[in-house]
Write a structure and sequence with these properties.
disordered N terminus; Rossmann fold; eight-stranded mixed beta sheet; 9 helices; single chain; globular; 315 residues; alpha/beta; 37% helix
């Protein structure tokens, strides 16, 4: 495999970051200065599966959620709840995992802590992946799952959330729901995501890219394929944001999607929506999905509190 050039050296984390996070993330910071080999999609998927399985296993002793396979409208899902069951009605959370729309990088690592903390069943939607299934396949799967959930639940009982690509899928789903004239969910968790697939954010000039030598829009090309990155169904920041669901946006100061998350939060607020923004000190992209540190505990508690309150206050 042809080695790629090294990325930007990164300074050590400041003392304002917890000692646990500084220790846990030191290997990651060191690895960012090393050449990264070119890898195939299959290798990326294998690595993500192995890495996320290790994260889930490492955290298992402190969590009570049970995972069972299922499907919604033919779309595979993972049912995650405290007892492994999915009631016919009542509160429900839909998770859309990260992984650049190419790999599953966190369906369980993202959903198990939320199901455990909220006591609300989570359906982690295993949407079709690019490049085999480019846009709008993932949105079609998200829409099919959401439509099915609406058959047994009021929209006020459903909230959606996702990290990274999953956050992008959340906003693409809401844009699609608006076009289809379907009711919107009670709330949305937009965690380290992008609502603009056309332009790179300012922070990208300071941090190592997600993939060597590629801006965020360039990493999305296998997913977008022939889609127009400025189409409001693809990049909702270019369309109307009036009447969007209450949203919690979450990012961190070393997140390659910091600019994108902040821009979308500002756009939601400018359109008159209820939207909060949490920015964590020193943490890298989507840190809660893999870093074992107090900041991760705080991030998951904030996500869980927001989602549970949004459903229970309206349900």
């Amino acid at each position: 495999m042809k080695p790629m050039p090294p990325t930007f050296p990164q300074p050590a984390l400041a003392p304002t970051v917890s000692a646990e996070a500084r220790e846990a993330l030191a290997p990651l910071l060191a690895s960012l200065t090393m050449p990264r080999p070119e890898v195939t999609v299959e290798q990326m998927r294998d690595f993500a599966t192995m890495t996320m399985a290790a994260v889930v296993q490492r955290r298992a002793p402190g969590q009570k959620a049970v995972v069972k396979p299922g499907s919604l409208a033919g779309v595979p899902v993972q049912i995650v709840s405290r007892d492994g069951s999915l009631p016919d009605g009542g509160p429900l959370l839909l998770n859309f995992h990260g992984g650049g729309f190419v790999v599953d990088s966190g369906s369980l690592a993202e959903s198990i802590p939320i199901a455990d903390l909220t006591g609300i069943p989570v359906l982690s939607v295993l949407y079709r992946l690019a490049p085999e299934h480019p846009y709008p396949a993932a949105v079609d799967d998200a829409l099919a799952a959401y439509r099915t959930a609406l058959k047994t639940r009021r929209p006020s009982e459903i909230a959606i959330f996702g990290t990274s690509a999953g956050a992008g899928l959340c906003v693409q789903l809401v844009a699609r729901l608006r076009r289809e004239g379907l009711p919107l969910p009670a709330a949305m968790g937009f965690f380290s995501g992008a609502a603009d697939c056309a332009l790179p954010g300012d922070i990208e000039g300071y941090l190592p890219p997600l993939l060597p030598g590629q801006s965020v829009p360039e990493t999305l090309k296998p997913y977008l394929a022939a889609a127009d990155p400025r189409d409001p169904l693809v990049s909702p920041i270019y369309g109307s944001l009036d009447g969007w669901p209450p949203t919690l946006a979450m990012t961190s100061t070393r997140d390659i999607l910091l600019s994108q998350t902040v821009r979308f939060h500002l756009a939601l607020r400018a359109a008159g929506n209820a939207a909060d923004l949490l920015v964590y000190e020193g943490m890298p992209h989507a840190f809660w999905a893999y870093a074992d540190c107090p900041e991760t505990d705080a991030a998951y508690k904030a996500q869980a509190n927001f989602l549970a309150h949004a459903i229970r206050s309206r349900g």
